[in-house]
Amino acid sequence: MNPSDHFLRTINKDFDNDIEEGLGGKKTTTAQAIDTLATAYKSSVHMEKVTRQIADIRSTGGEVVKMEGQQPSFLTQSFVLTKRSFVNMYRDLGYYWLRFGIYVALCLCCGSIFYDIGHSYGSIQSRGSMIMFVASFLTFMAIGGFPSFVEDMKIFGRERLNGHYGVSSFVIANTVSSTPYLLLISVVPGALAYYLVGLQRSFDHFAYFALVLFTTTMLVEGLMMIVASAVPDFLMGIITGAGIQGVMMLNGGFFRLPHDLPKPVWRYPMYYVAFHKYANQGFYKNEFLGLTFPNNQAGGAATITGGEILRDYWQVEMGYSKWVDLAILFGMVILYRVLFLAIMKTTEKVKPMVKGLRFRSTQPSVHVAQNGSGSP
Fold it and tell me: Which residues cross the membrane (predicted)?
């Protein structure tokens, strides 16, 4: 008899009807095997050793250990999850490090293409194109972390079923742990592109530039969190997220100026829903206000101010400052996280109800016929 059959026969009585014959044609049942093992253990030195250890433990005394586990507080859950998520992001090259390298390469390309752009009339369009690239494509690259986030979602699903922590702790931990990495990939590549191109040199202008880039990147990650809650498949999720961002890009006010957008759907409401509107206008106000360019248009003034360019050339809304655009972007970051939290909370409540309805609908109906009521 092989070892696996021996141990199965020893612990499982279901094999009593189909066991192999031992030596001499005798059969040993599971009960007999267990009794033999128990008798041998009682007369062995192992039982004496365990008995002495139990006596020593009882003699030392001590507090009674409560079997009920104490649920950690919300802050403890968030702290532990943040630490674990931060370490996972650090170790996973595909989460942020690969994206950081690609950002650096892209910003070097962007900086070399638009290098020292100057202050000519033609630089107006070049500045707008460079800003559009940063506001659209660099933020678009944030979908690269989608596969890693889906893996985190799977782990969260298993641990949530075991009651270890809630959805709120998971959302807060993911947001806090990703913040340092998003700052890194916003400041370093952003500085390369910003100063190579020759945008406004003051640190205040660069700080605003980096803040908008950081906020839009975090916003896109929140958008992909919502996509992951609805489309957990890697490929389908990336395609869905890319499609949503593509629609927002088209309505952001660069490819088609705001006044030229068709009013049904595209101007109202898509133009105001797209975060690219606020990112582009914040970048434009940050760059053009305070600058003066030579005017090549015949019959006009010799120079044209940045405010006139914003109002007439880019059709930017000048009724509020660039900080309002940044505040709106921060509000959208919070909104997307709250939407993800609401979706996950709703899913937790609805999914068991749907499964229960499906189970009841698949159960066969049983009809009991009374005596004499059936056909002969």
Answer: 96-118, 130-150, 170-197, 206-228, 234-257, 323-344
Say how far apart CA 167 and CA 309 lie, in whole Å.
47
- Taking phi over 0 as left and psi of -120 to 50 as alpha, with beta for the rest, 29 belongs to beta
The two tokens of residue 148 are 């890693």
φ, ψ dihedrals at 304, nearest 5°:
-135, 135
Report the amino acid identity of residue 233. D
CA–CA dist 169, 81 (Å, integer): 7
Tens-digit pLDDT profile for residues 35-93? 888 888 888 888 989 998 888 888 886 666 565 556 788 999 999 999 999 999 999 98
Give 160's Cβ-side CA count (13 Å radius). 17
pLDDT at 63: 65
Query: How far is the C-alpha of 341 from the C-alpha of 338, rounded, in Å?
Result: 5
- In this prediction the pTM is 0.77
Please spell the DSSP secondary structure of 119-162, one letter per residue.
SSTTHHHHHHHHHHHIIIIIHHGGGGGHHHHHHHHHHHHHHHHT
Q: How far is CA 203 from CA 110, 133, 207, in A?
A: 20, 21, 6
DSSP state of 96: I
Query: If you ran DSSP here, which 8-state letter would residue 307 be given?
Result: H
CA Rg, the chain, in Å? Answer: 33
75-84: long-range contacts at Cβ-Cβ below 8 A with a sequence spacing of 24 or more? Answer: 77/164, 77/165, 77/166, 77/169, 78/169, 78/172, 78/173, 78/176, 81/165, 81/169, 81/170, 81/172, 81/173, 81/174, 82/172, 82/173, 82/176, 82/177, 83/177, 84/173
| Pairing status of strand 264-265 against strand 268-269 | parallel
Residues 6+ apart with CB under 8 A from 284: 128, 131, 310, 314, 316
Reading phi first (left if > 0) and then psi (alpha if -120 to 50, else beta), residue 116 is in: left
Locate 371 and state its tokens: 């005596």
Write the CA distances from 269 to 160, 216, 258, 263, 371, integer angstroms. Answer: 37, 20, 12, 8, 68
Cα 230 from chain centroid (whole Å): 12
